[in-house]
Amino acid sequence: MTRPAFRAARLTLPLVAFIGVTFVVPLATMLVRSVYDPVVADALPDTLAALRDWDGRSDPGEAAYAAAARELLRAREERTIGRVASRINRVRGGLRSVVVRSGRRLQDFSGGPWRAVLLEIDGRWGDAATWQAVRTAGDRLTARHYLNAVDLQRLPDGSIARQPPERRIYVALLWRTLVVSLGITALCLLLGYPVAYLIAHAPPRRAGLLLGLVLLPFWTSLLVRTTSWIVLLQTQGVVNDVLVTLGLLADDGRIALIYNMTGTVVAMTHVLLPFMVLPVYSIMRAIPPQQMNAAASLGAGFPRAFLRVYWPQTLSGVGAGSLLVFILAIGYYITPALVGGQSGQLISNFIAYHMQTSLNWGLAGALGGILLACVAVLYLAYDRVVGLDRMRLG
Amino acid sequence: MPESNTAVEAPPTPAAEAPRGQTPNDPEYVAFDRVSKSYDGRTLVVRNLDLRIARGEFLTLLGPSGSGKTTCLMMLAGFEAPTSGVIRIAGRSVHHLPPRRRGIGMVFQNYALFPHMTVGDNLAFPLEVRGIAPDDRRARVRRALELVRLEGLEQRRPGQLSGGQQQRVAIARALVFEPDLVLMDEPLGALDRRLREELQYEIRCIHRDLGVTMVYVTHDQHEAMVMSDRVAVFRAGVVEQIASPEALYEEPDCSFVARFIGENNRLPGRVTRVRGDICDVDVGGRPVQALRVVACGTGDPVLLSIRPERISIAPEPGLYTNEFEATVDDVTFLGDHLRIRVTVCGQPDFIVKIPNVVGHGAVLEGDRIRIGWTSTDSRVLDADGGEGAA
What is the domain count for chain A? Predict the structure, then answer.
């Protein structure tokens, strides 16, 4: 780099630092959390050491009981037992209460034999499965969250199997997110392409006005826009009222347009439409108007001229717009959260749930990692097929 | 476009008369009948144009930018509709025909090749539209490429070709479906001079070989002279003169054409006497005998137009009717000829061109020389020189 160029590059350092702190570090942290969890390993080191050579079926032996009793007691004193319990509980449901109660009751006992003490507190300490769960939860590096995120689990014998049917939700959710995002992308293209065509071929003044209308959503608060959709689409809302007034719907047959997948699709299409219109419009502007005249002079009617001459030349804009809308859609959170109801939730809403409510950050990180991988695969596929250098965003 | 224009005729009606036939020498193959065009409903870009183009002719529409020549071409191609008047091709009004049904080959200013298709596909496009079988298509594409000397470039994309090659492809594409009429809108404007001259020659050869009717738009008079059978000189929406290149140069019948085509000297004066074809014009107090080209009477202000190469230096006394003393202001050596700037009849910047032959060294700056020209070489034209000529 030449000296002046280097100086200019230094001006971007604040931005680089900002992105590092607000984007790269949190992202990396979440991805690390999805495969690395030291809580149990740090809290129960001696117990895990005692279980290292255990065969997984027989009784783990007094040494393990003694270590567990000592360390559970300490974890209670250090107020980390709740986190330890929840992690063990994630491996095997129902163990949270066992761990928490053991920590509390152990205070009442002054000495061993600890096997008898723990079995007296809770008989499940006699199950090999309980100790397997403790040992599994004690792995610092784990693929557990990723397995969970694709509805798989590791059985005690180390093999991988599907989750029981009632716990299989994430694959279906991921599919739903991908399919819905694809649908929204298609809708945006269908609605946005003619608009872009209109703007690109309008006289300058009118084009500016139309472009302003397309950008209007960017100037209004997302919350206001989404709330407007609620006003329009709710059961007692404007759309239903109009349909009832026109006699197209019976008053008791009002349709649910919001708080379900319909609401999510409608509102997200609206929010993401500009991201389709802008790149497509920009590519259309670069097509000389003579192209269509040339096609006409060669004998082609509008449909053929459009399909053979115009449309292929807009493909790079269509690709860029679709990629943009799709990537934004699969990670979209606010709109589905506000208008999606139960059935309109997408994968990001579950990521948020695990971040904020269940506090299973490992799983949230794994779901986010899978989402990131989907986007990366798409991006690479686009590069292969169309070429990223041909992508024009505006 | 509102029809409420007071300056224009009623909307065109399809030609009622029977087709004029398609004899090989149809002198009215293309006809503009009192055609006017206005984009904004007020100003006319083309005014009451009457134009006849013979079958097989190469006609150039020449004029400065904004003179209406491209609009005429666009109306003929069907991309613009006349505000009034009728355009006929082979005797039939084309008013109701969209561009794709006119069967006209068109070469656009910036080539308008389809960048996402190969050269072969570009050329095959009009054939595919016409439902021609793939085998036949390939043969015709090959022939069209041979015509413009680009054999074997079918698989290239337009972006991989030079400007000259792209223009050849554009020409081939306009010819590949064998139209009877080919329009070209300043096709060589973007090319450098050498390439332009090469292509001018080639377009002329193609025209001669194929016998198609060509209408060519340019603002370059040299290009018009090289290629055309006839040239129509446009100015402000009106054809000032339409004639062969020779006639335009030798016999301009208005001062705009005289000024636009080639170099000429213009002497403003006033008619003092009219004797049939010849009249006497007073130029700065000196009488000049000149050919009366425009209608004019005694006392009218006129402009004399004299080509610089028709003026002789130091002629034998009595050889020319017009002989004057002149002061040499400047001598420029230009290889094959000398360009002498003199002051004559009180008018400066009068140009005399003499061929570079033995003895020219006699003329020096500051000399007083005698110059002369015949009365038929000075043409009496309208006094209006016209603004905006190139």
Answer: 3
